[in-house]
Design goal:
The structure holds two protein chains of two kinds.
Chain A (H helix, E strand, L loop, with lengths): L15 E14 L2 E14 L3 E5 L6 H8 L7 E6 L2 E2 L5 H10 L1 E4 L11 H10 L7 H14 L15 H13 L5 E5 L7 H16 L3 E5 L3 H4 L4 E6 L2 E7 L5 H20 L1
Parallel strand pairs in A: 3-8, 3-9, 6-7, 7-8
Antiparallel strand pairs in A: 1-2, 1-4, 4-5, 9-10
Helix pairs in contact in A: 3-4, 3-5, 4-5, 5-6, 6-8
Chain B lengths: L4 H12 L1 H38 L4 E6 L3 E2 L2 E2 L10 H10 L3 E16 L2 E10 L3 H4 L4 E4 L4 H5 L4 E4 L1 H7 L9 E4 L2 E9 L14 E5 H9 L6 E6 L5 H15 L10 E5 H44 L1 H9 L4 H38 L7 H27 L3 H6 L2
Parallel strand pairs in B: 5-10, 7-9
Antiparallel strand pairs in B: 1-11, 1-12, 2-3, 4-5, 4-8, 4-11, 6-9, 7-10, 8-9
Helix pairs in contact in B: 1-11, 2-9, 2-11, 2-12, 3-8, 9-11, 9-12, 11-12
Classes of the chains: A alpha/beta, B alpha+beta.
């Protein structure tokens, strides 16, 4: 059983947000049954910043899909804010995704030929809140301001750099004011310097109280989180609470890696 | 979900794919404009035919010599010499429903006035003819029964004759020569316009039939007898009585076929409108087929669009769109496409009809109903052909859709 993180550096409050009890997910393909998750027990407090690591095939994508309410477990319970969402219908899950969860993907997933502002407005169009167009525009602009893109609102994704595109995606994830942010390899398509900018932004959002779960295969990036959960073969292999590294410390580690590589080449 | 969001999402997407939107709508633009042009021209042609047949006269029965239909094949009028002037007189005098009858004889010939000459049609008729045709005189007067009895060398002329032969001057009292016979003009007919067959009806000289038979054509039989019945409801009755009378006068036995044909104005109208109706139906079905093809084009494009935009659908699902939202989006998109096509098609159709009608000299008809029908049909096409692609999109699995390359 995982411990609840009480690290004051994060926005953790100690209130339980996510509780997984004996979560299993079996994919059936014709006669073959593949067990991607074989009984996950996990508790996450509100305001935590957790990184999920693991080799490909370890089940981390499956876990993220279930956490993101895109998929339902074959067995076990998933309590989100005390509600068992594993019993929810497709439409109910869509509603949860809309207002409770924000997604950030490795390859941004922005609509092409669509301005940053319209991309950010997208989740609000599906919102059950009775928003006027004025409010929709205002909230999308506000979200873009939070990620520092207030001067790029009318730009199309093709006119933005990778880092800027990922920031638009973060703005889109934040625009419905979710309480949980799921980031799937958010730095995977970015060079390390831009990647750290994104990590910096995620840490800042976490300090402001947002609960964050991030999948990554880079150990350095995972160190930005206050908790690292490592999966192997559908089980939780390791669950460590650590003092998160700041972006400056991460940059320092990158430089040390570079020196090692350089000296290794010289020798 | 915000209700107004759907059309906005659809329009945003169509705007992102301008060329695709235009090409898809083009199929419908062609289909809809074809419908509008065909219906417009068909209605215009039919209205024109009806108007002309009405101009033919009121409650008119035409008696043609010979059997007009031989084994189903219609042969031309005036192909037999079976109708006499006496037949016409008998029809007029012996059948109570008949108020006027005029035996007709036509010649195509030269009319000379001074140094000018003009090739025209010269008709022999009775004084009743103008009443039968509802054709008033513009000036002068019609020849009389007395002129008929006297084989008087008088006649009335149409507007074309006034223009071509008299150069617009008043012809009354002037004398023209037709096949060497001097004819004094005593009346001018009012303008009548084009006939059913496209000839100018005003290009005409009308003489007493006695004069025409004896001095001009050399014939002794009527080419047609124009008969007027007192009331529209007595047409069938009159038609039957004329048939009986003529069979009796022509001494036809029960086994013998009629050697004449009696047709009402209504039958002439039906024959004429039937042709244009068949034409309209034919053209309209071609137009409907093109509309159908346009609809299949929409379905094809929407299917391609769904598979092309699988990742986008995945994203929409992940940010909280429900299956029915995605479905509604694609349905609205195809309906918007179709309505755009419908409006564009209506505009193109109106302009094309106007152009064709103008160059063909037909009246152009647009009914608001036809236009509304075109747009609502295209919207239905959008829903019908957009349904399957939209359903496909709505049932995508969000995870698979997000991962699709």
């Amino acid at each position: 059983m995982a411990t609840v993180n009480q690290d004051p550096a994060s926005g953790a409050t100690g209130r339980i947000m996510i509780q997984l009890d004996g979560l299993r997910r079996v994919y059936r393909m014709e006669s073959l049954a593949v067990e991607a998750l074989r009984g996950i027990d996990l508790t996450l407090a509100e305001g935590e910043f957790a990184a999920i690591m693991g080799a490909s095939g370890s089940g981390k994508s499956t876990l993220m899909n279930i956490l993101g309410c895109l998929d339902r477990p074959t067995a076990g319970r998933y309590l989100l804010d005390g509600r068992d969402v594993s019993t929810f219908s497709r439409d109910q899950l869509a509603r949860i995704r809309n207002h409770a969860i924000g997604f950030v993907f490795q390859d941004f997933h922005l609509l092409p030929r669509t301005s940053a502002l319209e991309n950010v407005e997208l989740p609000l169009l599906y919102s059950s809140e009775p928003l006027s167009w004025k409010e929709i525009h205002a909230r999308a602009r506000e979200a873009l301001r939070v990620v520092g893109l207030e001067d790029r609102m009318e730009h199309k994704p093709a006119e933005l750099s990778g880092g800027q595109q990922q920031r638009v995606a973060i703005a889109r994830a934040l625009v419905t004011r979710p309480r949980l942010l799921l980031a799937d390899e958010p730095t995977g398509n970015l060079d390390s310097r831009i990647g750290l900018e994104i990590i910096d932004m995620i840490q800042r959002l976490n300090r402001e109280g947002l609960t964050i779960i991030m999948v990554t295969h880079e150990p350095d990036i995972a160190r930005a989180a206050s908790r690292i959960i490592t999966l192997r073969d559908g089980h939780v292999r390791l669950d460590r609470s650590l003092v998160p590294l700041s972006v400056e410390e991460l940059a320092e580690r990158y430089r040390e890696d570079d020196i090692e590589v350089d000296s290794g080449q010289e020798g | 979900m915000k209700w107004m969001a759907l059309p906005v999402i659809a329009l945003r997407d169509l705007r992102r794919h301008r060329l695709r939107t235009f090409l898809t709508a083009l199929g419908l633009i062609i289909g809809i404009s074809a419908v509008i042009v065909m219906v417009g021209l068909g209605q215009g042609a039919r209205a024109e035919v009806e108007e002309q047949v009405n101009r033919l006269g009121q409650n008119v029965v035409l008696v043609f010599p010979g059997s007009r239909a031989l084994g189903g094949v219609s042969i031309g009028g005036g192909s037999a010499n079976t109708l006499t002037v006496e037949d016409a007189m008998a029809i007029r005098d012996e059948i109570p429903e008949v108020v006027a009858a005029s035996p007709e004889v036509r010649s195509q010939t030269q009319v000379i006035y001074g140094r000018r000459n003009w090739h025209t049609r010269v008709y022999g008729q009775s004084p009743d003819y103008l009443q039968i045709r509802r054709w008033p005189l513009e000036s002068g007067h019609m020849f009389t029964e007395e002129d008929l009895a006297n084989v008087a060398l008088v006649g009335v002329v149409g507007q074309t004759i006034v223009e071509e032969l008299f150069e617009g001057a008043d012809p009354i009292g002037e004398t023209v020569r037709i096949r060497g016979v001097p004819i004094t003009v005593i009346g001018v007919l009012s303008r009548k316009g084009m006939s059913l067959m496209g000839s100018v009806q005003d290009d005409i000289v009308i003489l007493p039939y006695t004069t025409a038979f004896r001095r001009i054509s050399g014939r002794s039989h009527a080419m047609v007898i124009n008969v007027q019945v007192y009331d529209q409801h007595a047409m069938t009755e009159a038609q039957a009585k004329i048939t009986d009378l003529l069979r009796e006068r022509h001494r036809l036995g029960p086994a013998q076929e009629n050697d004449f044909t009696v047709q009402t104005q209504q039958e002439v109208l039906q024959a004429a409108t039937e042709t244009s109706r068949v034409m309209t139906i034919l053209l309209a079905s071609i137009a409907a087929i093109s509309l159908f093809v346009g609809g299949i084009g929409i379905m094809n494009v929407m299917l391609v669009s769904v598979s092309e935009r699988t990742r986008e659908i995945g994203l929409r699902l992940s940010v909280g769109a429900r299956g029915r939202d995605v479905m509604a989006q694609f349905l609205v998109e195809s309906v918007v496409l179709c309505v755009l096509g419908g409006i564009g098609g209506s505009l193109v159709g109106i302009v094309t009809t106007e152009l064709i009608a103008h160059s063909a000299g037909w009246p152009a008809y647009f009914s608001r109903e036809a236009m509304l029908a075109a747009v609502s049909v295209s919207a239905s096409v959008g829903i019908f052909f957009g349904f399957y692609p939209a359903w496909k999109a709505a049932n995508l699995d969000p995870i698979d859709a997000l991962r699709r390359e």
